[in-house]
Amino acid sequence: MTGDTPLADRYPPGAGTVAIAVAAGTAALLGSFAAVGFAPGFVVAPVESTLSRVMPGFLIAFAITVLGDLGQQLNLAMAGAVVVVLYAQAVVVAVTAGRRLDERVVPLLGGPALVWGVTAALTGRPVLSLGAAVGAGVVLAVTDVSASRGPAARTPSGGRRRVLTAVGAAVGASALGYVVGRDGTAAAGGDPNGGDTGDGDRRRSDPAIYGDVEVPTFDADDQLAAAAERTFEFDGLEPLVSERFFNVSYSSVSPTPDAADWSLSVTGEVEEEPSYDYDDLAEREFQHRFVALRCVGESLNGKKLDTAVWSGVPLAPLIEEAKPNSDCDCVMVRAADDYYEEFPLEALETGFLALGMNGEPLPRSHGAPVRLLVPGHWGEISVKWITEIAFLEREADGYWERKGWHGTGPVETVAKLHATARTEDGRLAVGGHAYAGTRGIERVEVSTDGGDTWTDAELTERLPGPTGAVDDPPEHAADAWRQWRYAYDPPDGSHEVVVRATDGTGTVQPETERDAYPSGATGWVSRTVDPGSVG
């Protein structure tokens, strides 16, 4: 064969061409990842967000309550598959056009060009879209070269050779793209969507977000030390300041707002429409607060409940500056990732704009550069990447309410059972966390006989109140969890351990079991414990 081999001999007909196109599309996908990492410019990001927005509420409820984190991973994988199909179609179009125009140049140049066009249209980033074009181009170029050195593609052996060559090139290009993209993601601030450690990891200062601003100092050392002193030593039990804070967003790919360009607008039914940039907030005196967040979609004994020290400014003065005059007494909060939630103004008035987390700049996955915290309420209204607070004339549905959820109210009381251990004297110990929002936790009771009898568990000392710019600060944190533990002489054989909490108003955690959808799970947590399996 020579470089003048007809196109029919370069690309096998039918399924063979489709296979080569899919291989090129896969390499293009990883080429996009190599160019931008796991960031909004990654071609999968806009597709995944669109799928989340258009997916029926019952499917989302199933994914959250049954599949858990796997549901979002499947949505991301589905978005990736959609992108590969789009790319493959673009390559097939180029090959088909080449049969009529130019049997070699059109597929080699037209395929990558169409892939680039698809990527640029989806992401709005034409320069970074070249990464996808390069990925597809590598596979098509290698396939074309193989056409000059083997049997005709129309023959069975030649067709297989072309497909295997394309697949091999795609595997190599994809592996390289993955490594480059992964390293680029790490260099830009670590895993953007994983849980963040609470040990002062400097990866939180994401240069893609904070590179052009002077980041303030977040003096949370006293708070962190107080939490460490109060934390029980119990293997398998998360400390009072979470080491890996859960992360939930409607989209898998976190946005990367530039702090230098970020602003918060206050709009709608207000006399004034102030706007605040990052420096406006950073120059104010900070408060440092323990605040817990709990996801409305978590299972009863799930692990989407965590506590951190947040540094920032209260929202009440900003609301006063806007002078709201709405009869609705409700607000819509919007974010950089197009997320939005509506809830009562009364809840917002207790809110807090956080710029720091555990003594470091707010990490990307938790809403950098600024996020909203609404104490005592489900996490869905503690909006990350906040950009606007709109005072409404009439009530409207937020994102999750449109999907059938009702998670804008106060959290339910819960005591979780997450750890078992042996004490030094050989007794059995169980432990967990208890949380009731701003109502606080007064007691936790444990039953080791399935709920027939109850005994008080030991609780950690309450976390201290806010420090910094606080007039007459309360002694204790208003919205934080407590650890509990209980040691006992176990009966012979397996037995059922049940736990329940009582909040600061004296109300016992409801026994009635309710699924997470639509308003949050309720019930008493129970667990069968086998003493022989506890080391």
TrEMBL record:
It comes from the Archaea. Keywords: Membrane, Transmembrane, Transmembrane helix. Residues 185-208, 505-535 are annotated as: Disordered. One of its GO terms (molecular function) is molybdenum ion binding. The keyword Glycoprotein does not apply. The chain crosses the membrane at residues 20-44, 51-70, 76-98, 105-122. Residues 255-400 form the Oxidoreductase molybdopterin-binding domain. Residues 424-512 form the Moybdenum cofactor oxidoreductase dimerisation domain. GO terms for biological process: sulfur compound metabolic process. The keyword Chaperone does not apply. This is Molybdopterin-dependent oxidoreductase. It comes from Halosimplex rubrum.
